[in-house]
Amino acid sequence: MRQIFLVSACLAGGMFLSACEDKDASTVERAFQDVNVVDETDLNDVMLTAADPNEAVDYFARTLQGNADRIDLQRGMAKSLVRAKRNVEAATTWKKVTSMEGATNDDMVDLADALIRNGDWEAARTALDKVPPTHETFKRYRLEAMVADANKDWKRADSFYEIAVSLTTRPAGVMNNWGYSKLTRGDYAEAERLFGEAIRQDQALFTAKNNLVLARGAQRNYSLPVIPMGQVERSQLLHTMALAAIKQGDVATGEGLLREAISTHPQHFEEAVRSLRALEGA
């Protein structure tokens, strides 16, 4: 009788241990699955920021094999294609993202961004029209301003630029765009003001410095503005000013500015030299 009891106890103990082992195994497996999810998320983030854009595209293309229904991976692919400047593919992928379950208003805005990069302004406008007015983000209004600019709807463009500036702590880029919009309209004084504001926000923004010189040149003001600039930047801005003067018909002033640009540059300034030779030849 005692032997039967011992056998039963051993069997029960074995079953208990087996159950524990199964439970431990499933717990470990779930733990590893959680680790894999975290690792994959981290890797996705790395690919979207630090990796070479084309390497990131290859990574997401591989990961999407068998996982085409995962919207996070499709987003990663779309963003990587934008970074790689593969704009046609990016627009196509963003369209796919916006058609998937779980798509957001930000996805539609990113689609509009890709369409603008692809030069498809009308499609970008259609995409933005699908975004509800309550979705108030810097990117949305910056793109709205650009689309309004493309349609020469200046009133809407100014309104959207103003809203976009108020929604970011780094407005230099949008101020530069707004200034360029004013420059194309012939409002040179306001363009000059906006370019100056952009430079005050970001002293390294050379595009705004160059545009500021263009705005001053359009007003026949051929003196360089008092802004932070290195020696190479100074020579480049003098070259831009020279071309603006020549375009205005002030050829002698332009020639003098070209010579100053060449002498200011710490190395050989081939572009300015070619401009001067072309002027002398003419």
Structure description:
The protein is mostly helical and 282 residues long. It is 77% helix and 0% strand. It is built from 14 helices and no strands. It has helices spanning 2-49, 53-64, 71-83, 87-98, 105-117, 121-129, 138-150, 154-166, 172-185, 188-201, 206-218, 231-247, 251-264, 270-281. Helix 9 runs antiparallel to helix 10 (188-201). It is elongated, with a radius of gyration of 30 Å. 35% of the residues are buried.
**How many distinct beta strands?**
0
Question: What's the shape?
Answer: elongated
Oligomer: single chain
Report the portion of residues in β strands. under 5%
Distance between the termini: 121 Å
Give the topology string: H per helix, E per strand.
Answer: HHHHHHHHHHHHHH
Q: Structural class per helix/strand content?
A: mainly alpha
Radius of gyration: 30 Å
Count of discrete alpha- or pi-helical segments spanning 4 or more residues? 14
Q: Describe the biggest sheet?
A: none
What low-confidence regions span 5 or more consecutive residues with pLDDT below 50? 1-23, 27-38
Helix content: over 70%
Mean model confidence by pLDDT? 87
Organism: Parasedimentitalea denitrificans
InterPro entries: TPR-4, TPR-like_helical_dom_sf
Protein name: Tetratricopeptide repeat protein
Question: What can be said about this structure in brief?
Answer:
By secondary structure, the chain is mainly α.
